[in-house]
């Protein structure tokens, strides 16, 4: 979780807040401290800049993020993650099945911005991290097999700047990099290798401003090895795959430069900066 600590004896000048910065008046007269980050520190309420707080809060059976430039909640019973921009549309993701079976309902472990669900089926674990610019969904494969995960996507057809990389999932094997057979590798990339993924998008249905489809994902078992001398990559067979494996999906809001009018506004979307 991203937090900015007030320097000892300093007072924040809230009128100088921007989306990504804070300014403090230090105890010494005429001295200031300006703190900036690439991630959002504040979100625009419509009246002022409020601190981003991505800690999950329980509301009934759902966990939600309440103080950010987006609204987000997760239901550990239905495995539905709902993401709603305050200006740009919404996107819902649901983990439907693992190897054709609905994921197990387990008690989540929740600490600050992280929801962890262990052993939800076929050696799969799930971790959802609420970043300042959107949620990140990690899947952990304990092995020994390569389960098939099916996701349902339900999104607004006016997504604007909401993006997800569900169709371009990245992952690594040998999570932690401790496998004895890999420690002798000459390059760090070969100790934890990229995982080859099979990703299939189902047919789209568009109705009443909503777009729905499924995404089926499975690690093939092959990993990408890079020659330490020539730097030429090659795919290695599944026999070299080392568990556990981690896979990453993000849902974020991005503001392209051609949408920003130079004053922190985007066409039809409101204030960002």
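-> sequence recovered:
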């Amino acid at each position: 979780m991203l937090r900015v600590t007030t320097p000892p004896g300093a007072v924040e000048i809230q009128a100088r807040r921007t989306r990504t910065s804070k300014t403090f008046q230090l105890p010494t007269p005429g001295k200031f401290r300006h703190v900036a980050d690439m991630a959002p520190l504040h979100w625009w309420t419509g009246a002022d800049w409020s601190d981003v707080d991505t800690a999950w809060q329980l509301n009934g059976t759902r966990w939600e993020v309440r103080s950010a430039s987006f609204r987000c909640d997760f239901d550990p019973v239905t495995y539905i993650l709902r993401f709603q921009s305050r200006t740009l549309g919404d996107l819902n993701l649901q983990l439907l099945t693992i190897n054709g079976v609905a994921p197990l309902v387990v008690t989540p472990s929740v600490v600050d911005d992280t929801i962890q669900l262990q052993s939800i089926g076929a050696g799969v674990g799930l971790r959802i991290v609420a970043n300042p610019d959107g949620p990140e969904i990690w899947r952990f494969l304990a092995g020994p097999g390569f389960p098939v995960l099916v996701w349902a996507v339900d999104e607004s057809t006016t997504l604007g700047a909401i993006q997800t990389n569900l169709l371009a999932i990245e992952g690594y094997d040998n999570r932690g990099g401790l496998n004895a057979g890999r420690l002798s590798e000459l390059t760090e990339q070969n100790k934890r290798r990229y995982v080859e993924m099979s990703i299939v998008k189902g047919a789209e249905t568009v109705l009443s401003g909503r777009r729905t489809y499924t995404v089926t994902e499975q690690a093939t078992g092959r990993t990408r090895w890079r020659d330490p001398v020539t730097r030429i990559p090659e795919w290695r067979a599944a026999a070299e795959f080392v568990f556990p494996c981690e896979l990453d999906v993000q849902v974020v809001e991005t503001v392209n430069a051609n949408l920003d009018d130079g004053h922190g506004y985007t066409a039809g979307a409101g204030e960002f900066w």
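The chain is about 0% helix and 50% strand.
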